[in-house]
Amino acid sequence: MSRLFLPLFLLLLLVLEGVALDFIPSQIIENDWILVAHWLFIFLVLMTLFYDLEHTYYSVLFAIIFGLMVDIVYTNVIGVYMFMYGFTIYFVHGMSKMLHTNFFVAFLLSAVGISVVDFGIYLIYSFIGISQMDSSVYFTNRLLPSLVANLIFFLILYVSLKKKMVKWSKERFDIKKS
Question: Where are the alpha helices (DSSP H) in the chain?
């Protein structure tokens, strides 16, 4: 079941990211904040930390596949999200080998990952001329509000899915207690 659940939940998050902005209160929109939902990425970070083993890279594969799907569905440039999601999840996977996976590490890696992904996308779009936003406006009106909103979503996902992902990982990879 877990083999089927992970891609289906990623697909659900892909769809929900598109309608997430419809649920934002109007007071936030009046503040000129630009919120970008990176829910799919947050789930991939949790999958990296609590599902993948040191020698498995399912989360990187899903990051590349679903990053491409984000590019196809929501953007006009193919490969930006695919590259940034894949690169950043690979970085998180490497960091998870060196750090103990607990709440604080997961929170920190999610915050750093969201910042790297969002800033990388901004840099690529600025370089090819799609984004005309000034960097100071980007940091205050897009990166910080998006980071806070996505970390709130991280807390919800962490509480509800951490134990299930560890259980599915044990089932999937046949980990026996010693």
Answer: 2-19, 26-30, 39-50, 58-74, 80-98, 103-127, 135-138, 144-173
